[in-house]
Amino acid sequence: MSFSAEFIKDKDYKRMHITGILSSVSSGMIQVDLYEETNPIMRKFFVNEEGKTESDFGGHNLENYVHATIVVSPNNIPSIIASLQGVYDKYMDNGE
Fold it and tell me: What sign for the dihedral angle of Cα 56, 62, 87, 30?
């Protein structure tokens, strides 16, 4: 028996740098938020009459940008974990 599958990028496809996930259970489904933790960018600056500058970074040390949320059936979680573990093991074995 033969089988083939084609993968096509969605029109809204985006590549993101992810540094963490937040997960929860909602309505019997597992929700995973993919986020990127970054240092805040300067929001504004002010130069006073003496020529000294003051910067505003929003009053916090880190910013977490939630890039996407995925909702997954709990039945699919074991295969997702196995797939990610396989990729990680291969990465560690090759030292890439």
Answer: negative
Residue type (1 letter), 36:
E
Q: How far apart are CA 44 and CA 47, in angstroms?
A: 10
* Three-class secondary structure of residue 92 per DSSP: helix
Instruction: Give yes or no for a contact between 44 and 53, defined as CB atoms under 8 angstroms apart.
Output: no
- Name the nearest CA neighbour of 17 among 35, 33, 31: 35
- In the chain, the amino acid numbered 70 is I
Kindly give, in sequence order, each residue whose CB lies less than 8 Å from that of residue 54, ignoring residues fewer than 6 positions away: 45, 46, 48
- Phi/psi region, residue 90 (left: phi>0; alpha: psi -120 to 50; beta: rest), is alpha
Q: Does the predicted model carry a pTM greater than 0.85?
A: no
Residue type at position 80: I
The per-residue pLDDT for range 28-61, each reduced to its tens digit, is 999 999 999 988 888 888 888 888 888 888 777 8
- Would you state the structure tokens that stand for residue 43, as one six-digit string? 């929001």
